[in-house]
Amino acid sequence: MHYEPCSLAARIAVRERPDICPDREAKSHMNLLEICSFSGHKIYPAKGKTYVRVDSSANMCTFRFINGKAASYFLQRLNPRKIRWTVIYRRLNKKGITEEVQKKRSRRTVKHERAIVGASWDAIRAKRNQKPDARAAARQAAISKSKDAKKAAAAAKKAANPAGSQPKVSKQQAKGFAPKAAATSR
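Below the sequence we write its predicted structure tokens.
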């Protein structure tokens, strides 16, 4: 028998003292939460569908579903692991867990300064620490030195091989071919 008080004071008393109304149970919402047999979602009180199946051995199996869609998929014997919105699918395929996993730290490359084959590390450091005007002067000196060396090489080549001493000979003449016969007219 359900007792329904009429006055506000009586209603408050029933809320505060569940022993006045014996059929009313003092349960928290957490105890009343159930889990959908198909999707794995939480089912809150007064929500969802219940499906009772009686087996051949007179055993009753009770299934709770969050909505008609979950019940329909269950009765069609669809696999919840293949339905994308189910909790089981999301857990298997690692969906929605990005905020739980810490971002992997990328290793920063550390520069190591070391010698190159032709130069020691001290020589490299000395050149790097040179003033720009000293470096420019050294560059100009190296350029003028190489130009002088080229001029000297060209002069030596000219002296060893005078231009007018040898007549120019074609490759065929040098190989010993006879000249072509001159064309004669009748």
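The longest helix spans residues 132-160.
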